[in-house]
Amino acid sequence: MAKCMKCCIAVLFLGTILLTGPAGAQGAYPVDGLTSSYEAAAQYIIDQTGFTGKGYCFVFGAGQGRLAYELTARSDLEIIGVEGDSSQVDIGREILLDEGVYGSKITLHTGSLNSILKYRDYSAVLVVSDSIIANGTCTGYASEMYRMARPAGGVVLIGQPVGCPNVLSRTNLEAWLDAGGLNGSYSIVENPTDGLWARIDRGPLSGAGEWTMQWGNLGNTACSGEEGITDDWTVLWYGEPGPRVIANRHSRGATDQYKSGKWIIPGGDRVICMDAYNGARLWDLEVTDSSRIAINHDCGWFTLDDDYVFVAAQDDCHKVDVETGTITDTYHPPTGGRDWGYVAVDGDLLYGSEQTTNASVIIEYHLDGWNYSHLEYLPTVTSKALFCRNRNTGALIWTYDSSDGIGSNPFVIANPTICADDDYFYFFESYNPSAVSDSDGRVLLSDFTNGSNEYLVKLNRNTGVVQWRLQKELTFQHDIYLSCANGMLLASGSRTSSYYVYDFRAYDASDGSLVWSDDGISSGKISDNHGYHDKHPMIVGNNVYFKYKSYNLLTGSSLGFTWELGTSHCADSCASMTHFFTRKVKSGGGGATITSFSGGASSAQRLSEVIRPHCYISMIPVGGLILLPPFGSGCTCDLALQPTIAWLPQ
Residue 87 sits in a domain of what CATH number? Predict the structure, then answer.
C-alpha cells in the first residue's frame, strides 16, 4: 500500500530543499594552491554539461563549499553539499553567509558519506565531488551518486583538472567506480588538457511514458504509454507552484505535459517548466491570452518536444526553448486576421489550424452568460484550415483550406477531433452553412451535424493531400472526440436522451469504413451539471476504457471492465499501460485515485486523501512518476491542500 503523506514529510524535507536568490560575488576564499584547480574544475563541469540554468546540483564531500561557490558563479544552479567534517561545514557556512549566498544558492549539510544518504532519489540534475579535487580521494559511493542523479538527462561528473596537488590515478578512480554498486555505465576522459574525469549520463527509466499533447499524443489516446506504474508508491516531492497561478478547476483547463524530465504546467496566461524528478522550478514564462479553458470543446494550446515548447496565443505560435524558457521565434497562420488554433509538432514539422479570432475561450472572463459551473452547453471551437510549417525555419509547407473542400466550398473543422498517426491527419469537418457562417468560431454540434453535412476526412500530413472524405451520420450534441490508434479511428460523444448518453463509432483508418458502433451508453445522470457529458475514452493497446463501458478497439467486443462505484463524474481520466487515474468522491470532495486495469474496481486506491484533481484530466503517469499540478485551484470542498506533487512507484 502507499506510504501515508505524514510518514513521508520528514524524509521529504531532508531530500528536497527549495533554494532561490541571487548569484554570489567572487573572491570568497583566500588564494592558495587550490584556487586555480577549483576554477578550472567548475568551468570544465559547466562546459561539458551545459547546465547554466536553474536546477539542483549535489556535491559529495563538499568541504568548505569551494566547488559549489565556483559553480554558482558560472550558473544559476542551486547547490546542496554534504561533508563529513562538521568543522569544514562551519567554516564554509560562515564564508558563504558573508558572501550572501548561503541558504539562497548554496546549503551545506554535515553527514556521513559512508552510508545511504537521507535524500530522495533523483534529487539533482548534476552530481559532482569536491573531495576528489581537494584531496584526490573518492568520497561516498558511486551508487549513491547515480541514485541522486535524475533520469532523462541527469549527469554525474567527477574528477580533477590538471594541476591538482593531490593527484588521483585513473586506476584508483575506476576501482572505486567498479566497487560502488553502480547501476549505470561510465566513461573516462584523461588527457593533458582536461585532466582526469569520470562521467555517468543517466538515461530515461525503462518503460517511461510521455505526454506531449492535450490528450497525450498525436492520436488523442489519453494514454501516456508509461509501463512503470505499480500498486505501491510514495511521495517523491511536493511544493511549488501553488494554485494562485492556475485557472479555476471548474474551467477545465489544459492538461500538463511531460517529456525528457521537463514538466510543463499551464497556468493563467503562462507556462511553467519544472524538473519532474525533484521539483526545481526551471522557468516561468508569461504568454498573454494563451490560457484556453473549456478544453473539452477545443484543442490544446501548447505542445512539447525535446527542444522546444510551442505555445499558441491568438495569432501567435511562440517557439520556446525548453531549457531556458526564452522565446526564440514566433510563427503565424498563413491567412492574416485569424488565430492559431490546433498546435502539434513532430520531428521538423509544426502543424497548426486557423480559427476565427477569439474563438477559443480564454480564462474565466470569456464565460459571461454561459454555464460556468461545468460547461455542458458550450459550443465546439472550430477551425477553417489546417497547415504545416517547418518548425526550424517557419517556412510554409502546405495548407488545407476551403479551396480543397467539396466543390471548393468552405467548411469548418471540429478542433477536438483533429488527430494523427504516422502519416495522416483525421478529423470531422462540416459544410452546413449555419456552421460555416458562424461569426465567433464556436459552433453548436446540432449545427455541425445538421443536414448530413458532417464528413470524416483523411489527409496526408506530409503533403496536405486529401486521401478520402466520407459523409458520416453523427448523433453527438454536447461533446465530440476523435482518436486514432492501431489502424483504427474512434469517434465518441454525448447527447441527451432520458440521461446523458454516449455513442461510439469505430472506423477502419485505411478506408473509413464502419467497423463497429455502440449507442445509448447511459451515464445514469442528467439531473445535475457535473460533467456527465464530457468523458474522453482511453485507448490502451487494443483496448478502449471508458467511464461507463470498455471495448476491444478492433472488434467492439466488451471487455467487462467497470469503474469503481462512487468514482467522481466531475473529473475525466487518463491512463498508463497498466492503470488509470481519476478522482473519487469523498464527502462531497474527491481525492486522487489510481486503479489497476488487471485488478479492476476493487484495486482502486487513493493517492491522497487531501489533494483534489480538477474537473478534467489532471494527473499524468509519465517518466516513471505520477504527476499532479495544483489543479484543485478554486476548490472550496473539504480537500484543502493544493500543492504540486510527484509520486514515485515502488
Answer: 3.40.50.150
Q: Which helix (H) or strand (E) holds 519?
A: strand 514-522
**pLDDT tens readout for residues 104-145:** 999 999 999 988 888 999 999 999 999 999 999 998 999 999
Neighbours of 567 (CB within 10 A): 20
Beta strand pairing status for 620-622 and 396-400? unpaired
Cell of 227: 509501463
Containing 159, the helix (H) or strand (E) segment is strand 155-160
Count: domains in the chain: 2
Express each pLDDT in 69-107 by its tens digit.
Answer: 999 999 999 999 999 999 999 999 999 999 999 999 999
Q: How far apart are CA 236 and CA 121, in angstroms?
A: 8
> Rounded CA gap, 71 and 47, in Å?
11
On whether both 259 and 178 belong to a single domain, the answer is no
User: Do residues 579 and 540 touch, judged by C-beta distance below 8 A?
Assistant: no
CA gap 171, 124 in Å, rounded: 27
Comparing CA positions, the residue from 350, 407, 418, 361 lying closest to residue 384 is 418
Contact by Cβ (8 Å): 496, 477? yes
Range of the domain at 75: 5-201
Under 8 Å CB-to-CB from 493, ≥6 apart: which residues? 445, 474, 475, 476, 477, 478, 479, 480, 481, 502, 503
- How many other CB atoms are there within 10 angstroms of residue 480's CB atom? 24
How far CA 257 is from CA of 112, 272, 326, 591, in Å, comes to 38, 11, 18, 21
Whole-number Å distance between alpha carbons of 22 and 438: 52
Residues of the chain with pLDDT under 70: 1-27, 364-377, 524-530, 564-569, 585-590, 632-640
3 state DSSP class of 249: helix
Please give the biggest Cα pair distance in the chain: 85
Last residue of a domain, one of 156, 179, 201: 201
Pairing mode of beta strands 589-596, 396-400: unpaired
**Strands annotated E in 250-400:** 257-259, 262-267, 270-275, 281-286, 302-304, 308-313, 316-321, 327-331, 339-346, 349-355, 380-383, 385-390, 396-400
Q: How far apart are CA 610 and CA 591, in angstroms?
A: 6
CB–CB of 594/197 below 8 Å? no
- Under a CB-based contact definition with an 8 Å cutoff, are residues 207 and 579 in contact? no
Distances, alpha carbon 69 to alpha carbons 155, 260, 417, in Å: 19, 28, 53
Asked whether residue 215 is domain-assigned, the answer is no
The pLDDT assigned to 439 comes to 92
Query: Do 158 and 307 lie in a common domain?
Result: no
User: Does some domain include residue 225?
Assistant: no
Report the pLDDT value the prediction gives residue 22, as an integer from 0 to 100: 31
Q: Let me know: does 611 contact 642? Beta carbons within 8 Å.
A: yes
Q: Name the phi and psi angles at 537, rounded to 5.
A: -70, 155
Does residue 410 have a cis bond before it (omega within 30 degrees)?
A: no
Cα angle at 576 between 343 and 118, to 5 degrees? 105
